[in-house]
Amino acid sequence: MARNMQPILKRCRTLGISPSVMGIDKSSNRNPNPMRKKQSEYGRQLTEKQKVKFIYGMLEKQFRHLYEIASKMPGVAGENFLQLLESRLDNVVFRLGLANTRRESRQIVNHGHVLVNGKKLDIPSYRVKVGDVITIKEKFATSDRMKAIIEANSSRAVPKWLDMDKNTITGKVIALSQRDDIDFEVEEHLIVELYSK
Q1: What distance in Å separates the CA atoms of residue 45 and residue 195, rounded to the nearest whole number?
Q2: Mind listing the pLDDT tens digit for each residue in 140-180?
Q3: What residue ranges in the chain does DSSP mark as E strands?
Q4: For residues 93 and 63, what is the distance between their CA atoms, to the nearest angstrom?
Q5: Could you tell me which of 130, 110, 122 has the C-alpha nearest to residue 171?
Q6: Are 137 and 105 in contact (CB under 8 A)?
Q7: Alpha-carbon dihedral of residues 82, 83, 84, 88, nearest 10 degrees?
Q8: Which of 26, 93, 116, 169 has the fewest CB atoms within 10 Å, i.e. is most exposed?
Q9: Residue 121 three-state SS
């Protein structure tokens, strides 16, 4: 399996995103926006694609495949694409506060600690549906690591399209995410333009 081993803070600085989007509290002392030469339209499109790929922790083949699915759906392709990205199981686990970062949530899912509607699911790219109930296996839920994660994320707000019961460590998908639920700056139309060439 291919993995992205790039340093997160360095990549965040290059793409111009805040490390908090990735679930990391660290910051760099370097200038976040150094003087750069003017970017071409293609350069802007490519940077936007790389930024979204990096945030969701996906590689090109899977990212492109998800875009092709979104472009065939009725409605605006860019908004459909963001909705599909948000509905991935690893992202939902992160959004519910059951992991500190998306990388960690992917690992938790891969190791089989997540149950969807009572069944073990170890596929991070699984797309959740409205009404799905996401829980953590009882053995892992009582572990020191999970308790530390929940304590660290107790103040993080859960998006309005998800419902989280922190006592039972149970999350529910009550709706599909909308464009205004995205908590970072993204110009999805640039990705659509890049892929539609």
Answers
A1: 9
A2: 988 999 889 988 888 888 889 999 988 888 999 999 888 88
A3: 114-116, 119-120, 133-136, 162-165, 170-173
A4: 19
A5: 130
A6: no
A7: 100
A8: 26
A9: coil
State the alpha helices, DSSP H only, in 87-143: 89-95, 102-110, 138-141
Rounded to two decimals, what is the model's pTM?
0.82
Q: What is the pLDDT of residues 62-115, one digit of tens each?
A: 999 999 999 999 999 999 999 999 999 999 999 999 999 889 999 999 999 999
Give the count of alpha carbons within 13 A of 168, CB side only: 9
Q: Which amino acid is at 169?
A: I
Place of tokens 């596929």: 123
d(CA 165, CA 122): 22
Chain center to CA of 107: 13
For residue 135, the SS3 value is: strand
Residue 34 vs residues 42, 45, 51: alpha-carbon distances, Å: 20, 20, 17
Which two structure tokens, joined as six digits, stand for 183?
């908590």
The residues facing 119 across adjacent strands are 116
Residues in the chain: 197
Going 84 to 119 to 130 to 98, the CA torsion angle's sign is negative
CB-CB contact of 15 with 25 (8 Å)? no
Cβ-based neighbour number of residue 106 at 10 Å: 23
Q: Residue 150: which of 133, 167, 130, 173 has the closest Cα?
A: 167
